[in-house]
C-alpha cells in the first residue's frame, strides 16, 4: 500500500530533509527538525504524490488517503492530548501548502482550523481566555473564507472596521470577546452571502476543504505563471502540511517571529529578524503592528528586543539556531512561535541572501569549521560577485537627500524613475538605467525588478516582497519609504515638497535606505577581506588560468587588480579611435595607394609602440595576446560631410574623390566582408606596422627591465591555413627586421583566433602554422547560427521568451552547436600539436556556465572583461571541483 501521509513529531518521524521531492520543502524540514529533537508541534504531511494522483485522476484522491489522514490525525491528538472537533478540549490545526521549492501564488496558510460555534467555547474554557478564543475563531473564518471559500478579503475588513467604528476604538487589540462575537456574526453573513452556504461547522469537512484548496491552488493562474517563469514542472505537485496549532497570541508571554540565523543582507553572525508579542503569524507580515528586533545588538532606542523581553525563550532560540546551523551547515530562515514562554519551531529552510552575505557566510562558516574550503567555494554563485564588484556611493560626493526608507538590499543605483514593471523593462532594453518605483511590488513585477538597476517602494518592510526579491536578485532596494507619495496617474512621486516625474534621475543607497535627487558619484568596491580569502581558495582549486580582454592601461591595471593572469585579447583597433589617431587611421583607409597608406601608418606607429610598451610594463611578464586589426574598415570611416572634408583636406585630395572612396568601401554585409586577416592580406603594410610596433615595444621593455615580454600575436578571422601562413610570414619578417636593427632577439608566439566554422573544422591544418588558438566565440556564434551580432538583439529576446532558444547564445555558450565546433577544433589542433595552447576570448569567457564547458574541453585559460575576472576565477574553481579535480585546499 502506498504511504500517502507522513507523520512528524507525533511519536514518530517518518520524513527527512532529503525527502523534499515527496514531502515538499516545508514538510521535509519539519520532519528533519522534529527528528533532531527540536520542538516542533506534531503534525503530518500529505505527499506531493497525492497532488499528482489528484490531477491524473480527475481530481480524485487515492482511496487509502482518508484512512491514512485519520490515523495521522489520531497520532497528533494523542501527542497533544486534545481531540479534533471535541467541544471540551478541541485540537486545532494549521493547513499549509509546501512544494519542493517555495512558490508564491499558491494557497499559503489556514490557521485555527477545527473551530466552530461549539469548539470555540471549549477553547475559551481550556485557555481561560474568552477573548482569545473568539479572536481565534474570527481569524479562522477570515482565512478560511478568503483562501478556501474565495470570499473577497475586503468584505471581512469592512466588517471589522464597522465594529471598531461602533465601539469608537482604533486598534484591533481594543476589541473585546463580545465585539469579536459581533464580528463573527457579520463574517458568517458575508460567507453565506458570497457562497450561498453557511460557514462549514464540521471540522472534518473544514479539513478536507482546506486540503482541497491547497491542491486546487497548484493549478491556479498565478502558480502556473510562476512555474512557467521558473521552469518548475507541473508534475512536481505540492504537499499539504497539517500541524497542531500553537498560539503566539494567548497573552504577553506569547509571541511569533520570522528570522534568519545570520544577517541576510551583510552575512554578519547575528540573529536577524522580527517578532511580535501576543500575535499570530500573519500579524508580523501584515504590517499593522511594528515588529520588534530579535537581538539587543540590533535594537534602536525605544525598541523592545526579544532578548530583553523574553530572555528564556530567546536563549532557547539561540540554542536552536546553533543546532540548526550545525545540522544544515547553512544559514537558515526560520519561523517560530512562543506559547506561554515555550518555544515551537514552525519552519526552517536555507535562507535567501545577498551576494555580500553569501560570501561572508561561506567564508565565516569555513573558518568556524562548519564547512570546508571546497564547500565554501561552491556556496557562492560566481555571477553574484558582480554585485560586490560594483560601486557604492562616494561618501565625499555632494548629494541632496529626497527621503529615506529601509535599507532592504545593499548597493547603490542611479537611474531614471519609472512607475511600472513593463516600463522598466522597455526602457532598460533601450539601454537606460532605470529605478523602478512602486507603492509595493508583487510577483507580477518580477520582470521589471530584474530590468531595473534599483527598486524603491513606499510600503512594506525588510521581509516585504520587494526586499526579499531584490536581495535575491542582487538589486539595490530601498523599501517602505513612507515619506514618499507615489501618484501612478500623474506618473510622479513627491516627498518633502519635491516632485520627481517619470524619466527624472534619482539615486538609491540600498545600504542606508537613503534616496537622493539626481545622480551621486560612486566609488570602487574593496577587494580585500572575505573576498580575497575566497578568491585565494578558488585559485588553489582551479586548473584554468584567467586572463582579461583589455587594451588600455586603465583596463590592464583593473584586470591585474582583479587577479588577471595575463591579457587574452588586446583588440588593437580600440587603440585607433583616440582623437589623436583617428585622423591618421582615416587617412590610411582612404588612401588609394600603398604609399599613401604607408605615410599614414608611419604616423600611427609611435602611438601603437607606446600602447604596447605600456601594456607590457603593466603586465610585467604575464602573457599578453595582441590581436592584429580585425573590424571591417567601415567602422572607422568618416561619416559626416565635415569629417570627409577634413580627411580630404589632410590628404590634399578632392572632397568628391573622398566621397567616392567612402562609397567604395561601404559593404552590404561588413561583418562577413573585408575584415580580419583579409585586411592584412590586402594591405600587408597594416599588419607590418602593428607587428613592428609590438616587437619594438617588447625590445624596449626588455632593455628597460631586463625581462623580455613574450608577445603572443594573434591573427583574426582565419578561415584557411594559407591565410595564416601569409600573415605569419609578415609577422616573422618584421620580427627579424626589428631584432636585426636593435641587436636584441626575444621570444614570441604567433597564433590565431578560431572564430569561423571552417577554421574549426580544419583546425588540424591551421594548427600546423599556429602556436596557439584562441576561440573567438562571439564571431563563432554569429557564424554558426547565421545570426548577426549587431542585429540579433532586436528579436533574440523573444526567442528566449518563447523558449525557442534556452538562452541568448551570445551570453551563454551554445554547447550543442558552437561548443561542438570548439571541441572538434581543440581535438584536431591537439592531434597535430599536443602542446597547442588553447584559450577563449569571446564574451563567454566571463560566463559561469560557459566556463564550466571550457573546463570540460580542457582549455588552458579563459579571458573576459576586467570586471568579470573574479567571477571567472570562482567559476573556474567550481568547474574544476565539479570535474572532480584534485582538491588542493586541504
Ligand atoms: C570573438 O569574435 O569572439 C572575439 C573575441 O572577437 P571580437 O569580439 O572582437 O570580434
Ligand atoms: Mg571576432
TrEMBL record:
Organism domain of life: Bacteria
The reactions it catalyses are: pyruvate + phosphate + ATP = phosphoenolpyruvate + AMP + diphosphate + H(+)
What are the Pyruvate phosphate dikinase AMP/ATP-binding domain coordinates in residue numbering? 21-58, 64-294, 312-366
> Which Gene Ontology terms cover its molecular function?
ATP binding; kinase activity; metal ion binding; pyruvate, phosphate dikinase activity
**Does the keyword section mention Transferase?**
yes
Which residues are in the PEP-utilising enzyme C-terminal domain? 528-879
Required cofactor names: Mg(2+)
Which UniProt keyword terms apply here? ATP-binding, Kinase, Magnesium, Metal-binding, Nucleotide-binding, Pyruvate, Transferase
Cite the binding residues for substrate. Answer: 571, 627, 755, 776-779
Keyword match Transferase: yes
Coiled coil location: none
- So what EC number does this one have? 2.7.9.1
**Occurrences of domain PEP-utilising enzyme mobile (ranges):** 432-513
Q: Report residues binding Mg(2+).
A: 755, 779
Q: Name one Pfam family in it.
A: PEP-utilizers_C
Entry annotation: catalytic residues? 465 (tele-phosphohistidine intermediate), 841 (proton donor)
| Family designation | Belongs to the PEP-utilizing enzyme family.
This chain's function reads:
Catalyzes the reversible phosphorylation of pyruvate and phosphate.
Protein name as annotated: Pyruvate, phosphate dikinase
Amino acid at each position: 500500500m502506498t504511504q500517502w501521509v507522513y507523520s512528524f513529531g507525533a511519536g514518530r518521524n517518518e520524513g527527512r530533509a532529503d525527502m523534499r521531492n515527496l514531502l515538499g520543502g516545508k514538510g521535509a524540514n519539519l520532519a528533519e527538525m522534529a527528528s533532531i529533537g527540536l520542538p516542533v508541534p506534531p503534525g503530518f504531511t500529505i505527499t506531493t504524490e497525492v497532488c499528482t494522483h489528484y490531477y491524473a485522476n480527475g481530481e480524485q484522491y487515492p482511496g487509502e488517503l482518508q484512512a491514512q489522514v485519520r490515523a495521522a490525525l489520531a497520532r497528533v491528538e494523542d501527542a497533544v492530548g486534545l481531540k479534533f472537533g471535541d467541544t471540551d478540549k478541541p485540537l486545532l490545526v494549521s493547513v499549509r501548502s509546501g512544494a519542493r521549492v517555495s512558490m508564491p501564488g499558491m494557497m499559503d496558510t489556514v490557521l485555527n482550523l477545527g473551530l466552530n460555534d461549539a469548539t470555540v467555547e471549549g477553547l475559551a474554557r481550556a485557555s481561560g481566555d474568552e477573548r482569545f478564543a473568539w479572536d481565534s475563531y474570527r481569524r479562522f473564518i477570515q482565512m478560511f473564507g478568503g483562501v478556501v471559500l474565495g470570499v473577497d478579503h475586503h468584505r471581512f475588513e469592512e466588517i471589522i472596521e464597522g465594529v471598531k467604528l461602533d465601539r469608537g476604538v482604533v486598534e484591533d487589540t481594543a476589541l473585546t470577546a463580545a465585539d469579536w462575537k459581533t464580528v463573527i456574526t457579520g463574517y458568517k453573513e458575508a460567507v453565506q452571502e458570497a457562497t450561498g452556504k453557511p460557514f462549514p461547522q464540521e471540522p472534518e469537512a473544514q479539513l478536507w476543504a482546506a486540503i482541497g484548496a491547497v491542491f486546487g491552488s497548484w493549478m491556479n493562474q498565478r502558480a502556473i505563471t510562476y512555474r512557467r517563469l521558473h521552469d518548475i514542472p507541473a508534475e512536481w505537485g505540492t504537499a499539504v502540511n497539517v500541524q497542531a496549532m500553537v498560539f503566539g497570541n494567548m497573552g504577553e508571554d506569547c509571541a511569533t517571529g520570522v528570522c534568519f540565523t545570520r544577517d541576510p543582507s551583510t552575512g554578519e553572525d547575528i540573529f536577524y529578524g522580527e517578532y511580535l508579542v501576543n500575535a499570530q503569524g500573519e500579524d508580523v507580515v501584515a504590517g499593522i503592528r511594528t515588529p520588534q528586533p530579535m537581538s539587543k545588538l540590533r535594537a534602536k532606542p525605544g525598541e523592545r528586543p526579544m532578548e530583553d523581553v523574553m530572555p528564556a525563550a530567546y536563549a532557547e532560540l539561540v540554542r536552536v539556531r546553533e543546532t540548526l546551523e550545525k545540522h544544515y551547515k547553512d544559514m537558515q530562515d526560520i519561523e517560530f512561535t512562543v506559547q506561554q514562554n515555550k518555544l515551537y519551531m514552525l519552519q526552517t529552510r536555507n535562507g535567501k541572501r545577498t551576494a555580500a552575505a553569501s560570501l561572508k557566510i561561506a567564508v565565516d562558516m569555513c573558518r568556524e569549521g562548519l564547512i570546508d574550503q571546497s564547500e565554501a567555494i561552491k556556496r557562492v554563485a560566481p555571477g553574484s560577485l558582480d554585485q560586490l564588484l560594483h560601486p557604492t556611493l562616494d561618501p565625499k560626493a555632494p548629494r541632496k537627500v529626497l527621503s529615506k526608507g529601509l535599507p532592504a538590499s545593499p548597493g547603490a543605483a542611479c537611474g531614471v524613475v519609472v512607475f511600472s514593471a513593463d516600463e522598466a523593462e522597455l526602457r532598460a532594453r533601450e539601454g537606460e538605467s532605470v529605478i523602478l518605483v512602486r507603492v509595493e511590488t508583487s510577483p507580477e513585477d518580477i520582470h521589471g525588478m530584474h530590468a531595473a538597476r534599483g527598486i524603491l517602494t513606499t510600503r512594506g518592510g525588510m521581509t516585504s516582497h520587494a526586499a526579499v526579491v531584490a536581495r535575491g536578485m542582487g538589486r539595490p532596494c530601498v523599501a517602505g519609504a513612507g515619506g514618499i507619495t507615489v501618484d501612478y496617474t500623474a506618473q510622479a512621486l513627491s516627498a518633502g515638497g519635491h516632485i520627481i516625474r517619470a524619466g527624472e534621475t534619482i539615486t538609491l543607497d540600498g545600504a542606508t535606505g537613503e534616496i537622493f535627487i539626481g545622480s551621486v558619484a560612486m566609488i570602487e568596491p574593496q577587494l580585500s577581506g572575505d573576498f580575497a580569502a575566497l578568491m585565494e581558495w578558488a585559485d588553489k582549486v582551479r586548473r584554468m588560468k584567467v586572463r582579461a580582454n583589455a587594451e588600455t592601461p586603465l583596463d590592464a591595471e583593473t584586470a591585474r587588480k582583479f587577479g588577471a593572469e595575463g591579457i587574452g585579447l588586446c583588440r588593437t583597433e580600440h587603440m585607433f579611435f583616440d582623437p589623436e589617431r583617428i585622423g591618421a587611421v582615416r587617412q590610411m583607409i582612404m588612401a588609394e595607394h600603398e604609399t599613401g597608406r604607408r605615410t599614414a601608418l608611419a604616423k600611427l606607429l609611435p602611438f601603437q609602440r607606446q600602447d604596447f610598451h605600456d601594456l607590457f610594463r603593466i603586465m610585467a611578464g604575464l602573457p599578453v595576446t595582441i590581436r592584429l586589426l580585425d573590424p571591417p574598415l567601415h567602422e572607422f570611416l568618416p561619416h559626416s560631410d565635415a569629417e570627409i572634408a577634413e580627411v580630404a583636406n589632410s590628404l590634399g585630395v578632392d572632397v568628391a574623390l573622398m566621397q567616392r572612396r567612402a562609397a567604395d568601401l561601404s559593404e552590404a554585409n561588413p561583418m562577413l566582408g573585408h575584415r580580419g586577416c583579409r585586411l592584412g592580406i590586402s594591405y600587408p603594410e597594416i599588419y607590418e606596422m602593428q607587428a613592428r610596433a609590438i616587437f619594438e615595444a617588447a625590445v624596449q621593455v626588455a632593455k628597460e627591465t631586463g625581462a623580455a615580454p613574450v608577445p603572443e600575436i594573434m591573427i583574426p578571422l582565419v578561415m584557411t591555413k594559407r591565410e595564416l601562413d601569409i600573415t605569419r610570414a609578415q609577422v616573422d619578417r618584421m620580427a627579424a627586421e626589428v631584432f636585426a636593427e636593435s641587436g636584441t632577439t626575444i621570444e614570441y608566439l604567433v597564433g590565431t583566433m578560431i572564430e569561423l566554422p571552417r577554421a574549426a573544422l580544419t583546425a588540424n591544418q591551421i594548427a600546423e602554422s599556429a602556436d596557439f588558438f584562441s576561440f573567438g566565440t562571439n564571431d563563432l556564434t554569429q557564424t554558426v547560427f547565421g545570426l548577426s551580432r549587431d542585429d540579433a538583439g532586436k528579436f533574440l529576446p523573444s526567442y528566449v521568451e518563447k523558449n525557442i532558444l534556452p538562452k541568448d547564445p551570445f551570453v551563454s555558450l551554445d554547447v550543442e552547436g558552437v561548443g561542438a565546433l570548439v571541441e572538434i577544433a581543440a581535438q584536431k589542433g591537439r592531434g597535430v600539436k599536443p602542446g597547442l595552447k588553447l584559450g577563449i576570448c569571446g564574451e563567454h569567457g566571463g560566463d559561469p556556465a560557459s566556463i564550466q564547458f571550457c573546463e570540460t574541453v580542457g582549455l588552458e585559460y579563459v579571458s573576459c572583461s576586467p570586471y568579470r575576472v573574479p567571477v571567472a576565477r570562482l567559476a573556474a574553481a567550481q568547474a574544476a571541483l565539479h570535474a572532480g579535480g584534485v582538491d588542493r585546499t586541504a
